[in-house]
């Protein structure tokens, strides 16, 4: 099993991740903690140009997304796709791409992915913070 990059508020990812158009396949995360996804918690980070395919992300807690559990600060999340995946949260804030986003997201998509949770569940993003003014152009076919 994979442990998220930046798995806590005291150890969050603040860097730049450019997937360069590559695909991460068969990512499996099964945790009891919150902040579950390829990245657990990001703050002031840039994440771009990445596809996640056939992922299984499961947490008995909240803030769950295939790409990011929770995004804070001025982040840039651009050109990312989640497809053919399953994202399951046991608490609140479960999204196909991001559980909680306090930042704008652009050119992202969630395709053929099952998302389930108990409260605040979204196909793309479960909950968007007050400071976010756009998530464009994103798609959820």
Structure summary:
With about 140 residues, the chain is mainly beta.
List keywords for this structure.
141 residues, mainly beta, 4-stranded parallel sheet, 0% helix
Structural class: mainly beta
Indicate the low-confidence ranges by residue numbers. none
Taking the alpha carbons of the first and last residues, their distance comes to 29 Å
The pLDDT mean sits at 93
Q: List the total number of helices.
A: 0
How would you spell out the order of helices and strands?
Answer: EEEEEEEEEEEEEEEE
Q: Helical amount among residues, as a percent range?
A: under 10%
Shape: globular
| Largest β sheet strand count, sense and barrel closure | 5 strands, parallel
What is the C-alpha radius of gyration, as a whole number of Å?
A: 13 Å
Give the strand tally. 16
Beta-strand portion reads: over 45%
Task: Provide an overview of this structure.
There is one protein chain. The protein has no helices and 16 strands. By secondary structure, the chain is mainly β. It is globular. 0% of the residues lie in helices and 52% in strands. The termini are far apart. Strands 1, 4, 8, 12 and 13 form a 5-stranded parallel sheet that branches. A 4-stranded parallel sheet has the order 2-5-9-14, with no helix packed on it. Strands 3-7-11-16 form a 4-stranded parallel sheet, with no helix packed on it.
Topology (elements, then pairings):
Blueprint (H helix, E strand, L loop, with lengths): L15 E10 L2 E4 L7 E5 L2 E8 L2 E4 L4 E2 L2 E5 L3 E8 L2 E4 L2 E4 L2 E4 L3 E2 L2 E3 L2 E3 L2 E4 L2 E4 L13
Parallel strand pairs: 1-4, 2-5, 3-7, 4-8, 5-9, 6-10, 7-11, 8-12, 8-13, 9-14, 10-15, 11-16
